[in-house]
Design a protein that fits this description.
154 residues, alpha/beta, five-stranded parallel β-sheet
Length: 154
């Protein structure tokens, strides 16, 4: 019998390498995990709707088209995930990340949240829905190792 492959969706800020750190940590720990995420090219994500479906003179409709095209990927991959990890970064407010966390919670998909201590109050409702609240990619990898293999950090 083959080992289960866990599907982990990595949502949230796109300006740091936290996804790469989690993926490298999971690989180093030989965890049977496949990762997915939203499109992390900021310009492509913002402009996909108008690039594919045509220009919009009004910024609202420009963003609306892009959000809907992006939602095809996001809804599909979150819906297929075994675990959703959502990172809230330091510099930008990630409203889309909060939405993804809410979607995972509504779908009863286990949620791991990652953010700095200073965002604790602002994210208290998101934290309350999460099964774990972390600060670092390493903690996420340690949770995955425990959940998958039952191993604790050395």
């Amino acid at each position: 019998m083959s080992q289960r492959i866990w599907n982990v969706y990595l949502s949230g800020e796109i300006h740091t390498d936290w996804r790469d750190q989690i993926e490298a940590g999971a690989k180093a720990a030989s965890l049977p995990v496949e990762f997915s995420s939203p499109v992390t090219n900021h310009a492509a994500s913002d402009d996909c709707g108008v690039a594919i479906l045509g220009a919009e003179p009004d910024k609202f409709w420009h963003d609306h088209k892009g959000a809907k095209v992006n939602a095809i990927r996001t809804r599909t991959l979150i819906g297929e995930a075994d675990i959703v990890v959502v990172r809230f970064g330091e510099k930008y407010r990630q409203w889309n990340a909060a939405f993804d966390a809410g979607m995972a919670s509504a779908l009863n998909i286990p949620l791991i949240v990652m953010h700095m201590d200073e965002h604790q109050h602002a994210l208290k409702e998101v934290d309350a829905a999460a099964l774990a609240v972390t600060r670092t990619p390493e903690q996420v990898v340690q949770i995955l190792a425990y959940v998958i293999n039952g191993t604790l950090p050395a």
